[in-house]
Fold this protein.
Amino acid sequence: MPSRWIPVFDFYLALLDGAPIAVWLDMEAVNHAPLPSHPLAMRVRIPMRKPQPNGLRSDEEFDALNDLEDELTRSLAADADAIYWGRHLIAGNVDYFFYLPPRTPAEHEERIAPHLQFDGYSFEIEFTDDPDWREYLSSYPNAFHQQTMANRDLQAEMEARGDRLSRRRKIDHIATFRSAGDAAQATVRLKSAKFTVKSVAHEKRDGGFLLMFERRDRCDGGRPDDITAEILDCIEPSGGIYDGWGTVTRG
């Protein structure tokens, strides 16, 4: 792994074929992918012993799986030159994902097998040629999930300041567009969704057009994610990019 690459892990929740999936991944890896020295993808699957009914990890098994993950990723990085980029929790399984140097699967299995010895857990290994790192890129969050991650962080900051998130208040939003015409099209949809557009889109230094709008809403629970979905439905047909939201703290 290049010295300038400092992993930054974060997670999001989604549905895959109707089943909930928790995706934990290194957000910084997208700035280095693909890495030509590591063209081989490896998935290590571990069936959970006590998953929740929805197939995700239970509190009862949280510590054991965290300890397993720490030891597995540390040892494979040291002895197999493996780059760990994330995990999926789905359907009662934990899938750990790595990229490896171009050895044969048999050579890798010989190096890896000694590190797959954890009491009470079994392992399944799968190798795939993936020089373009498509496996990682397919797990990278889309615009909606990136914003839900930002929503979660902002909610935590607001709560730390003593904000009562359940109180309705004016929330300001920003989106950017390629042209004033695109912004105007999105404005019609935003107004239909009861947003108040604060000003006509004005040009930024980079040539894009900035649109600011607002609406009174709550900030608690999953409400910011619901609002994000509404906004994306309004702006994405016109090529808009959502730049997020802000509001005044309400105690």
